[in-house]
Design a protein that fits this description.
It is built from 13 helices and 16 strands. It is of the alpha/beta class. Helix 3 packs antiparallel against helix 10 and helix 12 packs across helix 13. The longest helix is centred in the first third of the chain and has 18 residues.
Length: 433
């Protein structure tokens, strides 16, 4: 059926629910006709640099020949088989690679459909672990304010309960234990007074709730959808120490921060901290297909396997999808075959220089950069529609939210493209604010 662009968009508005959107007052959407490299081709002829990496996942850009080839090769063999009672080479190879590149204690892999589901599985694993150790009363998670871990029920419960996106579900969610948000600033030292005060408060919260907490759950170093908020690696070391002291597991949600985004392959490396459980997703497949993974230590895996039930009680239909595993393995190999750290450092330098003028603009509260993440924080809520339009007129696609205009560009952006992204954001903020 041949339809005009307006007809397609009209049918979209009639039928489709977009993320965090209203059907009665939907936000504008744009029809994508194609994508290649780091650019989106829209139906109105506009071509724009995707400064979001399609929600932080398309690190190698679109239509990358290596990833295309991996996907097509696997499709020629088979696209999917159930993972109950069957296995396949792409899953085994990907598990080997993940164990190889993640912190050494992590030895076992559970594949999931999405990042949110991987956090669900991590929480279930932590609860089963405590039961297997005889701590049946340890049914809650300890976390910090400002976090975001996904939109399904267990992850929602460890998102910020006040300023997060899930306050409507208060009362329906498991009540978790929340400590204060770590003090802002990646470069804060361990002896910083604010950091020490935060550490003392967290110690008190942990001690008070030691009998009911199964695990600590946090995004390491950078809180993503909760506010693009960076904190010191020293805070992560505090949490590791508290977990060890009280017998909690430490779950690190590396879904947004993994695969180089913060300048380390995994953000926990900034702190020299090894988790008991780690979740990865988003950039895992280079943005080609949905896939996530939960990794855990041998000690955790054995405790659960030998405990009540004798198994981890989870099993998605599309677990370890061969197409997704094949393209994920190709994406990791592609990333590690190049000097990704130098490229992320170059992006960081380009964003730092390009966004610096925004700090002087009226209505801007803060400008910050960590790795390949650039953020302009406004003094009030962003007008998403106006800001998106203003940036797009300058040839760049962004998706502002709350009080933030930010970018997480593909690593394959050139220096010139990074400069274009930064100037487009700066000029748009100047125009709108």
């Amino acid at each position: 059926m041949t339809r005009s662009v307006d007809e397609w968009l009209e049918r979209d508005a009639q039928l489709l629910w977009h993320p965090y959107s209203s059907l009665s007052e939907p936000a504008p959407v744009r029809l994508v006709r194609g994508a290649s490299g780091v650019r989106l081709q829209l139906s109105d002829g506009v071509e724009a640099i995707d400064a979001m990496s399609s929600w932080w996942s398309v690190i190698h850009g679109y239509r990358h020949p290596v990833l295309d080839a991996a996907l097509k090769s696997q499709a020629d063999d088979f696209s999917h088989v159930m993972f109950g009672g069957l296995t396949h080479e792409p899953a085994i190879r990907l598990a080997e690679r993940l164990v190889e590149i993640t912190p050494e204690p992590l030895q076992h892999v559970f594949f999931c459909d999405s990042g949110s589901v991987s956090v669900e599985v991590a929480i279930k694993l932590a609860l089963q672990y405590q039961v297997s150790r005889g701590h049946v009363g340890r049914t809650r998670m300890l976390t910090v304010r400002g976090g975001y871990h996904g939109d399904t029920f267990a992850p929602m419960s460890v998102c910020d309960p006040v300023n997060g996106m899930h306050s409507l579900f208060t009362g329906a969610l498991q009540e978790q234990v929340f400590g204060p948000q770590p003090p802002a600033g990646f470069d804060r030292s361990a002896d910083d007074p604010e950091l020490q005060a935060w550490a003392a408060t967290m110690a008190a919260v942990a001690a008070e709730n030691a009998g009911s907490v199964a695990a600590i759950v946090v995004e390491p170093i950078l809180q993503g959808a909760g506010g693009m908020y960076a904190y010191s690696p020293a805070c992560l070391r505090v949490l590791r120490s508290l977990a060890d002291e009280h017998g909690f597991l430490l779950i690190l949600d590396e879904i947004a921060t993994g695969f180089g985004r913060t300048g380390a392959l995994f953000a926990s490396e900034h702190a020299g901290v090894d988790p008991d459980i780690m979740c990865v997703g988003k950039a895992l497949t280079g943005g080609y297909l949905t896939l996530a993974a939960m990794l855990c230590t041998a000690e955790v895996a054995q405790a659960v396997s030998n405990g009540p039930g004798g198994a981890l009680m989870h099993g998605p239909t599309f677990m370890a999808n061969p197409l997704a595993c094949a393209v994920a393995l190709a994406s990791i190999d592609l990333l590690l075959s190049q000097d990704w750290a130098a490229r992320v450092s170059q992006i960081s330098a380009g964003l730092t220089a390009g966004l610096a003028p925004a700090a002087e603009l009226p209505g801007v509260k803060d400008v910050r950069v960590l790795g390949a993440v650039g953020v302009v924080q406004l003094a009030g809520p962003v007008d998403m529609v106006r800001m998106t339009d203003a940036v797009l007129r300058r040839g760049v696609w962004v998706r502002p939210f709350r009080d933030l205009v930010y970018t997480m560009p593909p690593y394959v952006c050139t220096d010139a493209e990074i400069a274009t992204i930064a100037s487009a954001i700066t000029d748009a903020v100047r125009e709108v604010c």
